[in-house]
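user: can you give me the structure for this one chain? tokens are fine.
assistant: on it. calling the predictor now.
[tool input]
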Amino acid sequence: MIEKAFSGNFIEVTNENGIERVFLKGSVHTFLITEEKKIRLTIEKRLGEESTKEKIQAGLLEEGEAPLQTAKRELLEELGLEAGNWQELVTQKFTGTINDSRHYFIARQLVVVSTALDGEILDTKDYFLEELYEKAMSGAFSPMSQAAIAKLHFEVSKGNIEL
């Protein structure tokens, strides 16, 4: 028998015959490619802490919204940007005790369309792919982001993706 143990804005916990399972809302993560062929990361304040963290631009999926729609909405809300070219890189799905999905996109041809931002982003910083890859492999990102950065690095090195 499955019963809901907790339901919040971002997380749901069920109890299935004495086994708790966690279901996360799902998210999108976008590699922003600048005209200089650099990857733009966001700098955000860490919740509950005084420190900041560099991150791949990201947002949570909304009910009934396709991942690409979410990526476009979050890019506009957080950075006031639209992208003329979108490409899906990879989707990571996790099932079992913890359930989550992360959709990674590449956005090119960035255009500023608004300066009224939601305030989540403090700043941005641009990296060449090799710099970002080295930073990721040194442990600066979560394992999921590390894997996505490694995937991007691999696809670019093989000539399958152009920045």
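assistant: here you go. The radius of gyration is 17 Å. Residues 2-157 form a domain with the Nucleoside Triphosphate Pyrophosphohydrolase fold (CATH 3.90.79.10).
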